[in-house]
């Protein structure tokens, strides 16, 4: 999965980009505590990383 596709999923679930640090984008949700970090741009994220990020975001 491309990082762009995962970022689109996060944004559709209500996560907002709060800051960018180098090649990492940091997202926060207005109702859920915590921050999710997505490496971007990445042409191919591993299945385990995608699953972990989706689980943190509550979209699994």
Summarize the structure in words.
It comes from Halomonas binhaiensis. InterPro entries: HicA_mRNA_interferase, HicA_sf. The structure is a single chain. This protein has two helices and three strands; from the N terminus they run H-E-E-E-H. The chain starts with a helix and ends with a helix. The chain has one domain (3-57): Metal Transport, Frataxin, Chain A, CATH 3.30.920. Strand 2 and strand 3 (35-39) form a beta hairpin. The chain has helices at 3-12, 47-57, and strands at residues 16-21, 24-28, 35-39. The chain has 60 residues and is an alpha+beta fold. The chain is globular, with a radius of gyration of 10 Å.
Bin the helical content: 25-40%
Structural class: alpha+beta
Rg over C-alpha atoms, rounded to the nearest angstrom: 10 Å
Count of DSSP H/I helices: 2
Can you write the helix and strand succession as a string? HEEEH
Name given to the CATH homologous superfamily: Hypothetical protein
User: How many independent structural domains?
Assistant: 1
Oligomeric state of the chains?
single chain
Shape: globular
- Which architecture would the CATH scheme give at its second level? 2-Layer Sandwich
- Could you tell me the strand content as a percent range? 25-35%
Q: How many beta strands in the DSSP annotation?
A: 3
Please give the CATH class.
Answer: Alpha Beta
Distance between the termini: 15 Å
CATH topology: Metal Transport, Frataxin, Chain A
Main sheet record: 3 strands, antiparallel
Question: Could you report the average pLDDT, rounded to the nearest whole number?
Answer: 96
Which regions contain 5 or more consecutive residues with pLDDT less than 50? Answer: none
Strand order of the largest sheet: 1-2-3
């Amino acid at each position: 999965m491309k990082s762009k596709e995962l970022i689109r999923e996060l944004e559709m679930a209500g996560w907002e980009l709060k800051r960018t640090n180098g090649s990492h984008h940091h997202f926060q949700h207005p109702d859920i505590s915590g921050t999710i970090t997505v490496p971007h741009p990445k042409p191919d994220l591993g299945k385990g990383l995608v699953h972990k990020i989706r689980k943190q975001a509550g979209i699994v």
